[in-house]
Amino acid sequence: MLRRVARTLVTAGAAACLVGVLPAAAFAHVTVNPGTATQGGYAALTFRVPTESDDASTTRIEVQFPTESPLASISVKPHPGWSYEITKTKLATPIEVHGAQISEIIEKITWTAADPQSAIKPGEYDEFSVSAGPLPTTDQLAFKTLQHYSDGEVVRWIQEPAPGADEPDRPAPVLRLVPKENGTASPSAGTEQAALAADSATTQSDAGVRWAVGLSTASLVIGLLCAAIVVRSRRADKPQRSGGPTTGGDITQN
To answer: Is residue 203 pLDDT above 50, yes or no?
Structure first.
């Protein structure tokens, strides 16, 4: 009976461990936060970069900014231990922002680790931030990203999600844009609302990761308990040897 119970617990523990690991892996792609912002406003955009490799570190990140829906103003937040390089491009048709004609925009920002100690090691993540705007009047912006590893591998996060389709294997970070409510909301207010929504989504995501880690830990504990039960049951099944005198006397004596 004990053996059957042990086998059942081991199987359940292994299944729970797998369920606990899978949700954590689902959060492992490059993302942009907040996930939603207001058209016409400005937003602080943070690119969250996890290292998925088991034996290599992330040493360089290339984030491409959309040129079909250009951002007239982008400023970079300095990141300790990393340098950055800005690549600009000329617009075929200049855009007007606050009464000024803008003909050149930032096309790409490349962040590079200064040394191996600054690289994003396996099991870790880091964040790189910019301030950008005014945000265009479009539904979403995709920021195609290349992630370079210390072993030479390059992961291309460039697939744009299609409406109604499943998430692609290597999705590009996507910022969804919503119109101002009734045309009266200020850019800053809209950005704050979007940031609150993103914080809520991030909290849910972090809660999911904590749930996965907790479930994995519980599975490990179950596995150890099962092993202990099996060992104990085997010991109980072994016949007791009779031999020399004991303090309680020999029960075979008449």
So the answer is: no
Contacts of 176 (CB under 8 A, 6+ apart): 35, 36, 37, 139, 140
Given the structure tokens 């016409």, which residue do they identify? 40
Where does residue 191 fall: left (phi above 0), alpha (psi -120 to 50 degrees), or beta otherwise?
A: alpha
Look up residue 72 and give its amino acid: A
Distance CA 192, CA 223 (A): 46
Report the interhelical angle of 187-237 vs 2-26 (nearest 10°).
160
CB neighbourhood size of 12 (10 A): 14
Q: Which two tokens stand for residue 83?
A: 């340098």
Strands (E), the chain: 31-33, 36-38, 43-50, 58-64, 73-76, 82-97, 100-113, 125-133, 140-142, 145-149, 154-157, 174-178
Let me know if domain 29-183 sits in CATH 2.60.40.2230. Answer: yes
pLDDT tens across 40-94, in order? 999 999 999 999 999 999 999 999 999 999 999 999 999 999 999 999 999 998 9
CA dist 52 to 75, 155, 254, Å? 28, 10, 73
User: Apex CA 60: angle with CA 103 and CA 104, to 5°?
Assistant: 0
pTM of the model: 0.64
CB of 6 within 8 A of CB of 230? yes
Helices and strands per DSSP (H, E), number in the chain: 2, 12
| Alpha-carbon span 213 to 208, nearest angstrom | 9
Whether the Cβ atoms of residue 82 and residue 112 lie closer than 8 Å to each other: yes
Q: Are 157 and 170 in contact (CB under 8 A)?
A: yes
> Mean of the pLDDT values across residues 239-250?
44
